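Summary: Need help interpreting a holo structure output

Steps to reproduce:
1. Submit the protein chain below together with the SMILES for flavin-adenine dinucleotide.
2. Request a joint structure prediction with the ligand placed.
3. Inspect the structure token block that comes back.

Expected: a single structure record containing both the chain and the bound molecule.
Actual: see attached output.

Input attached:
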Amino acid sequence: MADQTYDVIVIGAGFGGSACAGLLAHRGLKVLLVEKNARAGGKAMSLAKNGFTYTAWVVIGAPVIDNLYESVARELGVADLAELVAPGHQGAIYRSPDGRYSQLPDMPVGESDPLVIFDWLGIAEDDRGAAIAMFAEMTMMPPEEIEQLHDVSFHEWITARGVPRSLYAFLVSLCCDGMFMVPVDMLEAAEAIRSLQAMFLRHGGMFCRGGFGKVAEAYCEAVRRNGGRVLMKAKTERVLVEGGRVTGVVTSQGTFRAPIVVSNAGIQPTVTKLVGEEHFPADFVRRNRELVPSWALLGYRYFLKRPVIEVPYGVVFSDESPWSRERLEKAAAGEASREGVLYYEVPSNYDPTAAPAGKQIVLTGSFCPPSPQMTAAEIEAWAAAGEKILFAAFPGLADAIEDKELYTPRDVSNLTRESVFPGQGGETIGLGQIVGQCGPGKPSIKAPVEGLFFVGCDAGGTGVGTQQAIESGMVVADAVLAHHQAAQRAA
Ligand SMILES: Cc1cc2nc3c(=O)[nH]c(=O)nc-3n(C[C@H](O)[C@H](O)[C@H](O)COP(=O)(O)OP(=O)(O)OC[C@H]3O[C@@H](n4cnc5c(N)ncnc54)[C@H](O)[C@@H]3O)c2cc1C
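--- attached output ---
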């Protein structure tokens, strides 16, 4: 019988859990990583079907330069197992107020010409000064100034700069909505500006051949190569707590013991279901219940008979696309248009092996509530809004469809985090990066139960989804190592 006792048990092989487990195994701890699915990757898992390979849905990496996917993979010696590609061009499409769709002229990476962007967005000469001043202020803002913006929404920050509506829509739709999946009038300005700086100065638009899940799979391989154990299809049912300390986990494949448990299952499911609220102080439980998840994407995987789209990825937006809290709530209640920004990705345009010869795969995503409990009619309404934008921007696409699959927040929740409160579970990112939940307001990686840590997009990281999860993995690995060493010294 395999060993049942470890230095640390990590629950979940998403980007946060697998990075953390890989780093801890590499630094000499005896690690067990338990994952309920058959594959690692969580919300950015790789899938394959009928000769097509792809990430489960639209997943676009940023930044490209000095990205964390590579730096952790290099540290773990597994960089050869996940081939990252940055195709260098994209297809942002703007629907102008007169209803015309036009694509951003192709510009070499790192040499974007603001004047070309302003012409494309129809920005008048008189408005260009404010636009340039805003870009300069945002990209050059020093960290200590960014730190002053935890109480301000990005909407408040940018509207105070008087930029024209089309530029606001471009920034919010291309970047903020997709990077954070929260309405821009709730999005924390510090989080937004830090990430936009990274994207503008270190570029965006990175992918992985075979799907992004390959990155998490590589981190899992590092656990094995460093003497750790990775148990797939092992769902954790319970985290064991004795005398205020974690002592192990009960999984569908047995009970395992460790004085440290790191959970990538989401802070709310971990506290409420896996550990049990009775083990936490009342104010922690209350705050945990009040945490607001990010919103969600739903969309389609289109398997096409022939190539239709020429670029590797892009976004379709108009001046009306940006989501505000009020518009999202009204749209969810069926009282406002559900049409917002649409993201699309074409894996076979950055990885020729991603589709059989002569075919194409296109993934799409548009906003919807994170609730896995949405009714069929609600799902249909949100999906139709996204598809209407796609078919208008790419008139030849509908005729080329051989097969299509819808994915919804219910699929995201089934694949990753459990829904323990109504309306939560299908979120795209994790905890919403809104004012009050970032910076000093972000939950701690260390739970108020001895030996319990949270890893992933709910604690410990900043920035765009997958990068945030990996950053959390790095931060938590450092903290767990220190905790382990302190316990050894005390023993
Ligand atoms: C539709 C969609 C589009 C996205 N687009 C982008 C994008 O363009 N760019 C980007 O950077 N990010 C994107 N993201 C977000 C990004 O994928 C996530 O933020 C990130 O991958 C989350 O990582 P994580 O480690 O926090 O957790 P998760 O990915 O949620 O991983 C948690 C892991 O824990 C496992 N688990 C949960 N409960 C248990 C249990 N009880 N027992 C065992 N295992 C368990 C799950 O199976 C899962 O593997 C997207 C996400 C979605 C859903």
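--- end attachment ---

Reviewer comment: The longest strand covers residues 296-304. The chain has a mean pLDDT of 96.
Status: needs-info
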